[in-house]
Amino acid sequence: MILVLTRDDDEHASHVVPLLRQRGAEVVRHDPASFPRSSRMAVAFERDGAAARRLDGLDLREVRSIWLRRPGEPVPHDFADPSVRAYVRDELRAFVGTSWDDPGPRTVPGGRRVIDHAARKQHQLPAAARAGLEIPATLITNDPEEFLGFYDRFHGKVITKPVHLPARGRLTRPVAPSEVGYAGALRYCPVIVQEYVDKRVELRVTVVGERVFAAEIDSQANHLTAHDSRDDRLGRTPYRPVRLPAAVERSCLALTRALGLAYGAIDLIVTPDGRHVFLEINPNGQYLWVERRTGLPISEALCDLLLEEP
User: Of 28, 21, 86, 18, which is closest to residue 55 (Cα–Cα)?
Assistant: First the structure.
């Protein structure tokens, strides 16, 4: 049995689940946001520590793989007293979240703690460097003076990003000179500041187990995507499958292993002089848009991984 934990509106799960069933797999799709309003869970421990987990009557000991895709948070029933609702919410999160930490089944991309750790820039940037990838000079701060010093160091050629994934629709843009006067506002919230890296193309590298799929994104083809390929509102940005240099491919695999991930979506820049520069890794990054534009068989590789014996 394969258990897919994700929201009801997750397009990726809706695409992969039928592929798994076509291969004869028994698949259960569940969104933790349905608990406890429309689902039931139980975890029982015997005196010797043996555990049994049940979800809506299913024995989860039969699960061979878990795809921890994009599960929602449990939603408590409506309570008139806000303090009761807050208490129940915290109890639900503690119970449901811990229930998927069973070390038995393979979990893709990894357990909750692994995903949370890997998503933090403070962890992934040094890990990428240790794996052999070049990273941009980076500052994470709420100190206006630190920001201004970094800004001057790179002669104003810097960009800012949110500290935590996802970016909630915020695209990468260079810091304009007119914005420097508002540096004092940083004291309210930290921000990531990086040197601006000139690009020839961008790369989206999807690692599935031990397989690596790379797509080249010609983000410089139009001005909308020049700074961030996600701003492809016209849908005209050229994509093509590419083969990474062997050393870069090894580094991408080494990075996902170091972070404990069985899956990762890595963003790289290829500079005009041919250097590969790491930007970030998303432990649960989207990939269907790449697959559809390039024909890369990422979904099939994901099915292979979920169907492997643990």
Answer: 28
- The structural domains of the chain, with segments of one domain joined by +, span 2-108, 137-195, 198-307
In this predicted structure, which of 21-25, 55-59, 133-137, 296-300 has the lowest mean pLDDT? Answer: 55-59
| Arch. (CATH architecture) of 137-195 | 2-Layer Sandwich (3.30)
Contacts of 142 (CB under 8 A, 6+ apart): 186, 187, 188, 189, 190, 191
As beta bridge partners, residue 269 has 202, 277
What CA–CA distances, in Å, run from 14 to 27, 176, 235? 12, 41, 23
Closest C-alpha among 23, 30, 121, 19 to residue 69: 30
Calculate the alpha carbon distances from 20 to 58, 288, 305 in Å.
19, 16, 11
| Cβ-contact 256, 282 below 8 angstroms | no
pLDDT in tens, 109-122: 998 889 999 999 99
Q: What is the DSSP string of 74-87?
A: P-PPP-SSHHHHHH
Strand order in the sheet with 276-282: 239-242, 211-217, 201-208, 263-270, 276-282
Instruction: Assess if CATH 3.30.70.1230 describes domain 198-307.
Output: no
25 φ/ψ angles, rounded to the nearest 5 degrees? -80, 145
What is the Cα–Cα distance from 119 to 79, expressed in whole angstroms?
Answer: 34
What is the rounded CA–CA span in Å between residue 106 and residue 299?
17
**Under 8 Å between Cβ of 125 and 135:** yes
Round to whole Å and give the CA distance between 281 and 267: 6
Cα–chain-centroid distance for residue 88?
Answer: 28
Query: With 70 as the cut, is the pLDDT of residue 128 above it?
Result: yes
Strand partners, 273: none
Name the 3-class secondary structure at 52: strand
Contact yes or no for 175/154 (Cβ under 8 A): no
Q: Which CATH class is domain 2-108?
A: alpha beta
